[in-house]
Design brief:
The complex is a heterodimer of chains A (400) and B (426).
Chain A lengths: L11 E10 L2 E2 L1 H9 L15 E2 L13 H5 L3 H17 L5 H4 L3 E5 L7 H12 L7 H9 L4 H5 L3 H10 L5 E5 L1 H17 L5 E8 L4 H8 L23 E2 L1 E9 H6 L6 E9 L8 H9 L11 E4 L7 H10 L5 E4 H5 L6 H15 L21 E7 L5 E7 L3
Parallel strand pairs in A: 3-7, 4-5, 4-6, 10-11, 10-12
Antiparallel strand pairs in A: 1-2, 1-8, 1-9, 6-8, 9-13, 12-13
Helix pairs in contact in A: 3-8, 12-13
Chain B lengths: L12 E10 L2 E2 L1 H9 L6 E2 L12 E2 L12 H20 L11 E5 L6 H8 L10 H8 L5 H6 L4 H10 L6 E4 L4 H14 L5 E8 L4 H9 L29 E9 H6 L6 E8 L14 H14 L8 E3 L6 H15 L7 E3 L2 H4 L6 H15 L1 E2 L15 E2 L5 E2 L4 E8 L3 E8 L4
Parallel strand pairs in B: 5-6, 5-7, 10-11, 10-15, 11-13
Antiparallel strand pairs in B: 1-2, 1-8, 1-9, 3-4, 7-8, 9-16, 12-14, 15-16
Classes of the chains: A alpha/beta (400), B alpha/beta (426).
C-alpha cells in the first residue's frame, strides 16, 4: 500500500526579511529600536483611541512609479514596500528567472473606505434624503473608479506582482490573525513537499483608519485613553492598532544553497488551530495541545507572541505561558501595536533576526512576565492567538 | 494492483460529493435540468432600488432569505446549503464531523450600508456627523454582532464549527479565480498526504448596490438591461460585459484510496491544477497572453495530458470584450488547430458571473457534464464574434463524448487558474 512513500521533507530556510512599521524600516533600524525599547504611539489623532503610526517612509525607494503608488491605498503601499525589502534582503530583487516562479501567499484584510464619501452619504441620509436611488446615485458619482482595486484583498498580491514581478502562484488568505499563520503553514508545507521551491509570504496593515476603529469598537476591542504594555492591560483591555508590513522569503535549503543565499534561520514547524472559544479555557488548552507538536526539548527558550491585550484571550494565553516558566517571552503587541494579519509574520521575522544576530532582544514589560535572556538563541517559538479566533505556533531555529 | 497514484507518483484526488446553488436554483438536479434547457437565472434586481444604476440586472438568489440581510450573511447561508448537499452525497464522516480541512473561497468582507446607516441613526446630533461621532456610538455592545459578522474569517469559522472540519479553516480570495484556488489548495493538501479528504467551498452573495457600482465604475458590467436574461453574451460580437451573480459550490475531495476504501461514489477526478500570475496590469491581461498560456500549459503538465486529450473547455467566458478575445487567443496558442474543434461553453451566459464562487460552480458543472455526457449551452449566442472562432456550444445543449474538461478562471490582480477534470483516473 505504501510502496511509494513521499520523499523526506525538505529543510526550509528564511533567506529574506522585509519590515516596515511604526519603528522605521529595515532590519538594522528595527534591531536598534528593539534594543532601545523604543515604542511609537499616537494618542491624539484618534483620541481617545491609541495607534502606532507608520514611521516616515519614502515609498519611491521600493515603488518607483508614482502611477503605481496612486493606484494603491496605504495598506497596499506598506505591503508592496515591505515585500520589496524582503526581496532585496534575499538577493532576488530584479532576478526575473527566480521571481517568475516565486510563489506568493499574502494574508490580507481589505482596504480603507473613502471616509469623506461615506460621511457625506450618512449626513445626507440623516437630513431625510432617502429617495429610492439616493445611495446608488451618490456611490456612482462620488466613488473613485479605481478605489475598489485599492480595497480588494487580493490586490496587495496583485500590486506586488506588478511592482516587483513576483509571478509564480498567487494566493491571498483572509481571516484576520489566523490568515498569516495559515499562510506560513501552507508555504512551509508546499516547500517541504517539493510543491514549491521559493515563496514570498507576508502581510500588511494600516492601523491608522477610522473605519477599522469602528469595526473593532463594535466588539469593544480598542485600547482607549492610556497606552500600557500588553501584559498591563488586564483592567483596561484592548489593542492599539498598528501600521506595519512584513514579508519573508522562504526557500528550500537546496534552492538557497544552489544560488549561494545565506539563511537568517530555519523555519521548522508551523501549527494552527481553531479553538472552540465559547468554552472557557479553550485557548489555553489549544496552546497546550500545539506546544508538543513543535518538538522542542525544553522550556528554556525564547518565545515571541503576538498577544493582543484583549480579553479573555490574553489571560488564557498568559495561563499557558504560566505553565512554562522557562520561556523568555517577548510581545510584539506592546512595541508595534496590533497589526492583525501582519502580527505573525512580524513574530517570525523578529525570531529569525534574533537568531541571525545571536541574541534575543530585551524585554519591554514592567510586569515582570518578560525576563532577560542573554544566551544566543538556537530556537525561538512564535505564538499567535487572534483577538476573536485562530491560534497557531511556529518554531524558528538556527541552521545547523 | 497498481498503486493508486498519478503519473507523478502522487495520490489521485477524486470528487465524492458536490453541492451547488445558483440563480437557477438549489441543488444539482435543478441546476442541471435548467442549465441543459438553456434557461437564464438573470433578472432585474428587486432586492434594492435600481434607480441611478447603469446595470440593473443580476443573478441574485432571492429564493434564499436571511434576516437581517447582509451579503456576508447570504454568502454564509449559501455555503452552508451547498456543503450540506456535498457531504450528504459523499457520505463522508459523521454529522458535524468532517475528517479533513476546509478551504473556503469567499468575497472580501466589510461593514455594509444597511448596518452603517443603522449605526449613524443612533447619533443624536443636529450638525454634521463625523466618523468620530460614529466611533462614539458603536461600542458598548449595542452592535456587538456586527464585529463577528464583518470579520473576514466569519463564514469559514461558522462552516468549520457547523461541519466539524479539522484544523484551522482557510478563507481565501484570488478574485474571480477564488473557487478554483480553493480546489487547488484541497488537491495540494491531499497530494502532500496531509489529509485524505478536504472540503472545498466557494460562495458569493455580493449583489448589493456598492458592489454593482464598483464593477460599473470599472466598466466591467453589461448595460444591456432589457431583457435581463439576454444580457450575458459570451463570445458574441455584441457582448458588453459580465452580469453579477450569486452562487456557491462545494466539493468533497478525497484521495482515491480513501474513497475506494469506504465505497464512496467517485464523481470524477481532479487530474490537474495550474496557476500563473500576470504582472501586466491590475485588471487587464498581458497583451501577449503569456501568463494565461503558461497557466493552461502548467495545468496540462500537472495532469500529464496533451491538448488533444481535452475534449471540452468550460470557459471563463465572462462576456467582457477583452476576456473572451484573450481566452480565445491563449487557447489557440496552447491547443493549436484543436482549439477550433473542442466544444467550448460558458455557464456564465445562464448563471451570470458568481465571482468568488465561479471557479467551484463551474468545476461542478464540468463534472456534471462528464457524468451526463452532455454539454450545457452558451445562451444568447446569436451573433458570433468572428474574431473568436471557438466551437461554441451555442444556445442548445449538445450530447458529446466528454472524457476530460479544462475549466478556466481568470481574475483581477493577475490571477489565472485552470483545472482539468476527468471521469476516471488516468
Amino acid at each position: 500500500m505504501t510502496e511509494s512513500q513521499s520523499p523526506p521533507a525538505k529543510e526550509v530556510w528564511i533567506t529574506g526579511i522585509g519590515i516596515v512599521s511604526s519603528l522605521g524600516e529595515g532590519l538594522d533600524a528595527h534591531w536598534d529600536a528593539l534594543n532601545q525599547k523604543r515604542i511609537n504611539v499616537d494618542d491624539k489623532r484618534f483620541a481617545p483611541y491609541i495607534v502606532h503610526p507608520l514611521a516616515p517612509v519614502s515609498f519611491d525607494a521600493q515603488i518607483p512609479k508614482k502611477g503605481d503608488q496612486r493606484q494603491m491605498e496605504a495598506w497596499q503601499r506598506i505591503g508592496t514596500y515591505a515585500a520589496g525589502l524582503a526581496l532585496d534582503s534575499a538577493g532576488i530583487k530584479g532576478n526575473a528567472e527566480i521571481l517568475g516562479r516565486t510563489d506568493m501567499i499574502v494574508a490580507a484584510g481589505g482596504g480603507e473606505r473613502d471616509i469623506a464619501v461615506d460621511m457625506a452619504i450618512l449626513n445626507a441620509a440623516a437630513q431625510g434624503n432617502s429617495s429610492p436611488g439616493f445611495l446608488n446615485e451618490r456611490l456612482m458619482n462620488d466613488l473613485r473608479p479605481t478605489l475598489f482595486l485599492a480595497q480588494l484583498s487580493n490586490l496587495l498580491a496583485g500590486n506586488i506582482a506588478i511592482v516587483h514581478g513576483v509571478c509564480g502562484t498567487s494566493r491571498t488568505f483572509m481571516g484576520e490573525e489566523a490568515a498569516s499563520i495559515d499562510a506560513a503553514r501552507i508555504a512551509l508545507a508546499r516547500i517541504e513537499s517539493g510543491q514549491s521551491d521559493i515563496a514570498l509570504v507576508g502581510a500588511a496593515h494600516n492601523g491608522e483608519r477610522a473605519d477599522l476603529l469602528i469595526l473593532f469598537e463594535f466588539g469593544d476591542f480598542n485600547l482607549k485613553d492610556k497606552f500600557s504594555p500588553v501584559w498591563e492591560r488586564k483592567e483596561n483591555s484592548g489593542f492599539a492598532l498598528g501600521s506595519a508590513g512584513c514579508f519573508l522569503v522562504m526557500e528550500s535549503r537546496e534552492h538557497a544553497e544552489a544560488r549561494g543565499a545565506k539563511p537568517y534561520a530555519r523555519l521548522t514547524k508551523v501549527v494552527a488551530d481553531l479553538a472552540q472559544r465559547n468554552q472557557p479555557g479553550a485557548v489555553t488548552r489549544s496552546l497546550e495541545a500545539m506546544w508538543p507538536q513543535l518538538g522542542v526539548a525544553s522550556d528554556d527558550i525564547g518565545l515571541i507572541t503576538g498577544a493582543t491585550g484583549v480579553e479573555p484571550v490574553t489571560s488564557e494565553e498568559k495561563a499557558f505561558l504560566g505553565q512554562h516558566p522557562g520561556f523568555a517571552v517577548r510581545t510584539t503587541g506592546t512595541t508595534f501595536g496590533h497589526t492583525l494579519e501582519t502580527q505573525f509574520p512580524l513574530g517570525l521575522a523578529l525570531a529569525a533576526l534574533s537568531i541571525s544576530r545571536g541574541a534575543l532582544f530585551p524585554p519591554n514589560d514592567p510586569t515582570g512576565l518578560e525576563v532577560e535572556k542573554l544566551a544566543a538563541p538556537a530556537q525561538i517559538v512564535v505564538l499567535g492567538a487572534g483577538h476573536w479566533q485562530g491560534e497557531g505556533m511556529a518554531l524558528v531555529e538556527a541552521v545547523k | 494492483m497498481a498503486a493508486p497514484r498519478d503519473n507523478l507518483g502522487r495520490p489521485i484526488v477524486v470528487v465524492t460529493g458536490m453541492g451547488i446553488v445558483t440563480s437557477l436554483g438549489a441543488g444539482k438536479s435543478d441546476n442541471w435540468a435548467k442549465l441543459t434547457a438553456g434557461e437564464s437565472g438573470i433578472k432585474t434586481v428587486t432586492r434594492f432600488p435600481i434607480d441611478g444604476l447603469k446595470s440593473t440586472m443580476a443573478g441574485a438568489i432571492d429564493f434564499v432569505t436571511i434576516e437581517p440581510f447582509s451579503s456576508t450573511g447570504l454568502s454564509e447561508r449559501l455555503a452552508e446549503m451547498v456543503t450540506k448537499e456535498a457531504i450528504e452525497q459523499s457520505g463522508i464522516g459523521s454529522k458535524g464531523n468532517f475528517p479533513g480541512p476546509l478551504f473556503l473561497a469567499v468575497a472580501p468582507v466589510e461593514t455594509e450600508w444597511p448596518q452603517r446607516l443603522e449605526v449613524s441613526r443612533t447619533i443624536d446630533k443636529k450638525e454634521e456627523m463625523t466618523y468620530f461621532d460614529m466611533l462614539r456610538v458603536c461600542g458598548g455592545g449595542k452592535f456587538a454582532e456586527y464585529h463577528h459578522r464583518f470579520m473576514f474569517g466569519s463564514v469559514a469559522n461558522y462552516l468549520a464549527r457547523t461541519f466539524g472540519t479539522k484544523g484551522s479553516p482557510i478563507s481565501l480570495s484570488t478574485a474571480c479565480a477564488s473557487g478554483a484556488t480553493s480546489i487547488q489548495l484541497g488537491v495540494e493538501a491531499i497530494r502532500r498526504g496531509e489529509a485524505n479528504a478536504a472540503l472545498c467551498v466557494a460562495t458569493d452573495g455580493s449583489v448589493n448596490p456598492e458592489a454593482i457600482v464598483r464593477f460599473s465604475l470599472l466598466s466591467a458590467l453589461s448595460t444591456q438591461n432589457d431583457p435581463p436574461q439576454a444580457a450575458s453574451k459570451p463570445f458574441s460580437k455584441n457582448r458588453d460585459g459580465f452580469v453579477m451573480a450569486e452562487g456557491a459550490g462545494a466539493l468533497v475531495l478525497e484521495s482515491y484510496d480513501s474513497a475506494i476504501a469506504r465505497g464512496a461514489p467517485i464523481l470524477g477526478v481532479v487530474a490537474g491544477c495550474g496557476e500563473l500570475t500576470d504582472s501586466f496590469h491590475r485588471t487587464r491581461s498581458s497583451p501577449d497572453g503569456k501568463p494565461i498560456i503558461g497557466c493552461m500549459r502548467k495545468t496540462l503538465a500537472d495532469a500529464g495530458m496533451t491538448p488533444e486529450q481535452i475534449d471540452h473547455i468550460n470557459a471563463h467566458g465572462t462576456a467582457t470584450p477583452e476576456n473572451d478575445k484573450m481566452e480565445y487567443l491563449t487557447t489557440a496558442a496552447v491547443f493549436g488547430e484543436h482549439a477550433q474543434k473542442i466544444p467550448v461553453s460558458s455557464n456564465k451566459s445562464m448563471v451570470g458571473h458568481t465571482i468568488s464562487a465561479a471557479g467551484a460552480v463551474e468545476a461542478i458543472i464540468s463534472l456534471l457534464t462528464l457524468e451526463h455526457q452532455r454539454i450545457p449551452p452558451t445562451i444568447n449566442y446569436d451573433i458570433p464574434d468572428p474574431a473568436i472562432p471557438f466551437n461554441v456550444v451555442g444556445n442548445k445543449a449538445r450530447d458529446a463524448r466528454v472524457t476530460a474538461v479544462m475549466s478556466n478562471s481568470f481574475g483581477f490582480g493577475g490571477q489565472n487558474a485552470s483545472l482539468i477534470l476527468t471521469r476516471e483516473p488516468a
